[in-house]
Specification:
Distance between the termini: 32 Å
Shape: globular
Strand content: 5-15%
Largest sheet: 3 strands, antiparallel
Helix content: 55-70%
Radius of gyration: 17 Å
Strand order of the largest sheet: 1-3-2
Number of helices: 6
Length: 147
């Protein structure tokens, strides 16, 4: 079997470098792009929902949200329906940054796929999407086994 995880990780790390070079904002790093997309796509999500959406553990999400909150990108509120959970909302500062983050993502995707046939990309994305669902399924079943 090909070492596809090494290849995917190399692409991901290259993307992080690209994002950092293009955005050039002191208090936002490449890893925050995922948070920006997720929070703006679903304002008012709980921290737990964000953790599941972006496949990170709750403590990493909490630490990152603290950084984003301290720098004025998000605000957090206690959920009125469930006092144990916290809702996350983008601030205007994050909403103002979103178009630039989208532009960088679009540029990266276009550059990466520039020399690849459309049909090949469709097949690749289909296979990759199935692998993503399988990976999420494996981790969810692993969480259930641990409980």
């Amino acid at each position: 079997m090909p070492k596809f995880m090494k290849t995917l990780n190399n692409i991901s790390r290259s993307q992080s470098v690209f994002r950092s070079q293009k955005l050039n904002v002191d208090d936002i790093c490449a890893a925050h792009h995922t948070f920006i997309f997720a929070i703006c796509r679903a304002p008012g999500s709980t921290q737990e929902e964000l953790a599941k959406e972006i496949c990170l553990n709750k403590s990493t999400v909490a630490r990152t949200l603290t950084h984003l909150e301290n720098n004025g990108y998000v605000r957090r509120e206690t959920n009125k329906d469930d006092k144990r959970s916290t809702l996350v909302f983008p601030t205007q500062k994050m909403l103002d940054l979103l178009p630039k983050v989208r532009e960088i993502a679009k540029e990266w995707n276009s550059s990466l796929a520039a020399d690849i046939d459309h049909n090949e990309l469709e097949i690749f994305f289909s296979v990759l999407s199935r692998m993503e669902q399988k990976a999420k399924s494996i981790t969810v079943s692993g969480e259930k086994e641990q409980k």
